[in-house]
Fold this protein.
Amino acid sequence: MKVWFDGALRETDAARVSVLDHGLTVGDGVFETVKAVDGRPFALTRHLERLTRSARGLGLPDPDLDEVRRACAAVLEADPVPLGRLRITYTGGYGPLGSERGDRGTTLVVAVGETTRRPDSTAVVTVPWTRNERGALTGLKTTSYAENVVALAHAHRHGASEALFGNTAGRLCEGTGSNVFVVLDGEIHTPPVASGCLAGITRALTIEWTGAKETDLPLEVLREAEEVFLTSTLRDVQAVHRVDDRELPAAPGPVTAKAMRIFQERSGDDLDP
Ligand SMILES: Cc1ncc(COP(=O)(O)O)c(C=O)c1O
């Protein structure tokens, strides 16, 4: 496997980042996960826009998007897997041991790994921890993701593939790596970005393509919703068949099934919507 690092395509074993990289020591970095189908990235422009927004949110210099595009093309050309997880990581670079940032420039790593298509439905659990809708990192896709590591491990221990968070006000927010949608009276709703969720790219496309509404919802809506589904880069639209102890045996229900179909059609029509 080859990765892009330090301005060129390199063998993974030869690509060495400093042990003092601020991304490693304090999680001072941002990232994107992009779906790649047969070596072609999906919605790359939207992902690169979000990468820049996340970098600005951390006070990092804007990433060189020409280089990021060249890097994505190079790793995909070297390894055009049928379904790929293209990962762009951009950090504060070599730094001191504390939280202050160094001045030797940023680190960019781009890599692709093979993945498999997710099942059409899955189980989720709610977690006892909250998303902070008012934090310095809220809405940024940063490499400070250890809270998600802990919550996802909790989900796996409970036989689920995703953990859902409420925010500090007890409102529905998002998953560790996905956005959440519910169907109420036949209409699709998803929490607004003000809930503290990431502005997911799949979420935005799903809202555009299905007319889903952004609605502030209590976490308990998960107990009553007719249908629940997740969206993310690698899940696309995925039905939920269990929330905690509540079974939704009909998943995907009719509204979710239609959203899945629309997403598949529209995303097949345009690789960079
Ligand atoms: C915390 C979080 N929420 C939501 C998402 C879904 O966003 P996207 O559809 O852009 O993959 C992600 C992305 O992986 C995420 O990390």
Observations:
- The radius of gyration is 19 Å.
